[in-house]
Write the structure tokens for this entry.
Amino acid sequence: MFDFHCHIVYGVDDGAKTLEDSLKMIQEAKKVGFSDIILTPHYIPEYYESNAEEIRNKITEIQKSGIDPEVHLYQGNELYAYEDLAMLIEQKQASSIADTRYVLFELPMHNEILDISPMIYNLLESRYIPIIAHPERYSYIQKDPNKVLSWIEEGALLQANYGSIVGLYGKEAKNTVIKMLKHQMIHFLGSDCHRPNSIYPRIPEMLGELNKVITKEELYRLTTKNAEDILNGNIIEIPEPQKIEESFFKKFFK
């Protein structure tokens, strides 16, 4: 399996604090079945600004510290919403996913950006493909998950967090991710792990819950195949997302 989103690189954001933390998290990830880990520390202007070279040096140090050779690490970032995301990558401030055309970015949790089209178009015009992190956690998507349909139509892909399926981010995030999974709105899964002894030990439980919602074939696509295709330079085949239809009762009592 691939972990598409985590904060294992130590000392650069609100994730791992020490090299020992990083090594422990990688050990935990391997134990539950992750063979490939995409490292996505935050890049938030004026808060977390370690540039691509600094992150690369940290990853090299982690790799030289005796991690399991069967675990493969890849450099990336989780960028914060910014109109010219492509510029940050081209100036080596931030990284795409493993130097591919794919870029992971997050939106504000509660303050909705009414139109994210400029960010999507900016990346597409620069030949990058946008991936939006954990939409199920955004309060405005919880109110109306169908908002993401326009994002997908414009060319964005979506990454959900494993922990959402067990209510780690609250009941609304859980209900929302279930709806999105059932309606083909999610394309990748990531741990979003920030510290040892937190997410990774619960991955088997999370996989069990995911198996209740989607087929084994769909789970394989979200946990492995799509990420593998990115790294191999293949085109990702995504299913047509379906609009979520609410019953009259639910609409009336909102």
